[in-house]
């Protein structure tokens, strides 16, 4: 079996050695140790890293990647077929994330164009002015007592 040093894996994968160590601590890749305690990675670690980077690039968390890799028999390296299965599993979640980001972009664009820069008080995003009903004085430092009247909040201890 061909083994690579962390520096070789780093150079070939484009990842920093510290990222390799992080992925190893996260259980995404594994290494062996020489008699001197130096890490060595199997050559197929490069393919595993490519899989991790591709998944992370589209927003899949390391925990989700770890769970996906754990489903592979014997911890083998993911194949193109594995990627297809996992990508299909992640597709709906990614579509939801994309939709949420598009809504956020739209909200930011309209908020910036109106000039208020506050989704809480914006006439476009909060036309009923819920904030004003909750805080008639406009002061966020005021709270409400049991009867619903606004009272000054006590400063919290450091």
TrEMBL record:
SUPFAM superfamilies, per the entry: Putative DNA-binding domain (SSF46955)
Lineage of origin: Bacteria, Thermotogati, Deinococcota, Deinococci, Deinococcales
MF (Gene Ontology): 2 iron, 2 sulfur cluster binding; DNA binding; DNA-binding transcription factor activity; metal ion binding
Regions that span the bilayer: none
InterPro entries: DNA-bd_dom_put_sf (IPR009061), MerR-type_HTH_dom (IPR000551), MerR_fam (IPR047057), Redox-sen_tscrpt-act_SoxR (IPR010211), Tscrpt_reg_MerR_DNA-bd (IPR015358)
The protein, known as: Redox-sensitive transcriptional activator SoxR
Chain residue ranges for the region called Disordered: 135-158
Keywords, in A-Z order: 2Fe-2S, DNA-binding, Iron, Iron-sulfur, Metal-binding, Transcription, Transcription regulation
Domain HTH merR-type stretches: 3-71
Basic and acidic residues bias locations: 147-158
GO terms classed as biological process: response to oxidative stress
